[in-house]
UniProtKB/TrEMBL annotation:
GO terms under biological process: cell differentiation; fatty acid beta-oxidation; spermatogenesis
One Pfam assignment: 3HCDH_N
Domain 3-hydroxyacyl-CoA dehydrogenase NAD binding: 445-629
Protein name in UniProt: Hydroxyacyl-coenzyme A dehydrogenase, mitochondrial
Pathway: Lipid metabolism; fatty acid beta-oxidation
GO molecular function terms noted in the UniProt entry: (3S)-3-hydroxyacyl-CoA dehydrogenase (NAD+) activity; NAD+ binding
Highest taxon, organism lineage: Eukaryota
The reaction(s) this protein catalyses: (3S)-hydroxyhexadecanoyl-CoA + NAD(+) = 3-oxohexadecanoyl-CoA + NADH + H(+); (3S)-3-hydroxybutanoyl-CoA + NAD(+) = acetoacetyl-CoA + NADH + H(+); (3S)-hydroxydecanoyl-CoA + NAD(+) = 3-oxodecanoyl-CoA + NADH + H(+); a (3S)-3-hydroxyacyl-CoA + NAD(+) = a 3-oxoacyl-CoA + NADH + H(+)
Amino acid sequence: MNKNAVRRVGKANYLARSNHSGIDDNNATFSALTMQQKVPTDLLALEPSTSQQAESMDYLDLPSAVVVDGNGVVTAPHLQPEKDERHATRKSTIFAMLSLEILMILLQHADFLTQQKLRKVCKYWRAVLNLSDLQESVWLDSQSLIGTHDFVAEVYRPRQLWSFTLPRTLSITYNGLFYQRKEMDGEASRVLRKFADRCPNLVTLDLRGLYLKECIDDWNVFFRGVPYSLTVSASQIVFGMLDVPEMRNGVAQEPMKPHRRCRRRTGSGPTVDLLHAVRQVELNPANSVFDALRNSVEASRLDAVREWVEDCATVLMKDQRWLGFVRAESLPSPAIHRISSEWGDFEVVTEPAEVSPQKVVNGQDYFTLLKFAAYILTRGDIALPRPTPFKFDFETDRFYRLMGGVSFHADFFRRLHRGKKVIKMASVFLQPVRHYSKKAAINHVLVIGGGLMGSGIAQITAAAGMKVTLVDQSQDVLKKAVSGIESSLGKVARKQFGEDKEKADKFVKTAVELIQTTTDAQQPAQFADLIIEAIVENLDTKKTLFTSLDKAASNHTIFTSNTSSLSITDIAAATKRQDRFGGLHFFSPVPMMKLVEVVRIEGTSDATFDALFDFAKKVGKVPVACKDTPGFIVNRLLVPYIMEAVRMLERGDASAEDIDTAMKLGAGYPMGPLELADFVGLDVCKMIIDGWHKNDKAQPLFFPSPMLNKLVGEGKLGRKSGSGFYDYKAQQAKQAKSGR
Ligand SMILES: CCCCCCC[C@H](O)CC(=O)SCCNC(=O)CCNC(=O)[C@H](O)C(C)(C)COP(=O)([O-])OP(=O)([O-])OC[C@H]1O[C@@H](n2cnc3c(N)ncnc32)[C@H](O)[C@@H]1OP(=O)([O-])[O-]
Ligand SMILES: NC(=O)c1ccc[n+]([C@@H]2O[C@H](COP(=O)([O-])OP(=O)(O)OC[C@H]3O[C@@H](n4cnc5c(N)ncnc54)[C@H](O)[C@@H]3O)[C@@H](O)[C@H]2O)c1
């Protein structure tokens, strides 16, 4: 047993395992190492295994480990019931999860399966696995298979979920691929292709671990749908072709040989030869497979291919940002900042590195490369070193590289627990995806502005079972808001529960208890999953608010504005979280109006947008997707309509009553335009029209109205102030008296 290895396990903060089939002996060794040691209590994560390794995961007896592997397979050793049953349980879990992963892709991107179904599946798994106490764990999801984050987030609700993903990358790892392929029929293939078509930003396909010839053929069809390029790490692909030989005392008993599947499928030729390339890299870690290939190129015969190889080498080795390989990691947590300062060889940045794909490398080129590599390496005149047995040794990066097909994962972990320089080949992109973990888990909503809209939004959010903190500038406003909410909830309850007073009261009480109020937005911002701003319609005021919230709020928090007329992009500019910013435009009265416009700005991530859509549904609304254009959908039509009614009144063309009656009875609107303006608030109407006029002075539809300005100047703001185009005082007094 390697003493250094034993010592290192004892000291590790993280233990890393890469996933690769055929290394059970390594597992056993690793298990033995781990079992011998008192495992540190701050051990955060293991990245252990795939299904093939399920049998040899004894090291999972770690006390505080959370185990996440590249497939989204998650195991919590301390939750396993009986030791004897463990393997069986785990194995079935693993297999089920693998198929779930595949399901995830289909669920998320196919029309024929819905989000509701997904939620059901997740709910089922949460119940089955009863892993709620993993919520405090930190999860490292090394899998970039699309959908895994959401799945892990939804099922396990970890405190943090980080994933190593290249930006805008569809990454298909070999298990997903392998199983997918097995399952694949015409329909699945169609769906996947459609998915590729729908991802205009998709930059790369990561083929690491791809090793079955048939897969290549099948998936080639799919690759052609991808608009940009293909990320190929030759080392990973090559490693995917290896069988790691039997181990005894940590030493391989025979040379590595090609994976049996490869041998069976493709014969020994190309695979063995690629293995030689690996050997070259092993002998000289500064080399890459591409270097090895490039050195072997005969210019006169293979110019075109060489150019391509060189391009790839450049991408992989020199300018990794080209494809989203990055210089730095983007990490969300103070803990990681601490790790970085202690272990220190990587720079922590908070923004994902820029990605600017300029080249197009298609799937065909990739396969040309593989063929080319095979050709070069099968030539008898190139001297290649003989494969040598390798040592199982924590001290060298060889261990890691041989442990798995996913070398950069291993290297990342190695950095964390050893703090040494990483070989150049490692390219890790860590994207902060904590918001993914919250996507389906919006539990705490901060509503800022306790006026007409804010109180309505707070009400429906609490009625849907979420915790709400409602913020306004004064306790008086907040008191008024809560009493309005109570009375409105009472109406809703009466409708919902009819005569059953007990149930109605319980409904109101439960919702009201979920609402807290405060005049300080900063403190609750730290804990909110979603912030909905519904303060005064003024760009500067909103921006000032968001700037301060951006500093106070947690990294995962999604910000939204309920603005009627301002540009969400302009508001979001006050923050550094464009990807977690969007618009949620509710309608008044919020408890009654079914629509929510979900507004997407350029930076809004899919995860954010989906989370907002889900949230709108969760609060009982019908969401529609909008671009960030003035007035979105409804107000772009409604504002000119209301203003034309005001001008009609101003000109004396008709009375307020007649205008309203005409539109109600002649056009079927529930309220006439002037009634509606009063209902919305004339101050809000004025702010909207003034703002739009300022932006487009020539547009007559947006001209200010002297009558509207006069009413607002006199404090006649519509219903909320008791008068506007109409007088409501008598009506309000009557309502107050009757308690409605
Ligand atoms: C110049 C530019 C201006 C643009 C402005 C844009 C502003 C903004 O961005 C967009 C908007 O919001 S645009 C604005 C978009 N909004 C519109 O366009 C609104 C158009 N108006 C309407 O749809 C209807 O008039 C209402 C639904 C408001 C009231 O319905 P109705 O039939 O006329 O009167 P009813 O008989 O009294 O109430 C009926 C039922 O509703 C119940 N209820 C009422 N309020 C409640 C509350 N807060 N809580 C709970 N429940 C509430 C009530 O209890 C009753 O229940 P019941 O069981 O049947 O007794
Ligand atoms: N009124 C509508 O029908 C309607 C409909 C959809 C969207 N909106 C939009 O919703 C927002 C709010 O509209 P409203 O009608 O509820 O307005 P409102 O005047 O009824 O309420 C705004 C509230 O925000 C509070 N406020 C102002 N600045 C604040 C700050 N810095 N921090 C905390 N609270 C602050 C005010 O005290 C007030 O209570 C606006 O952007 C408006 O355009 C309004």
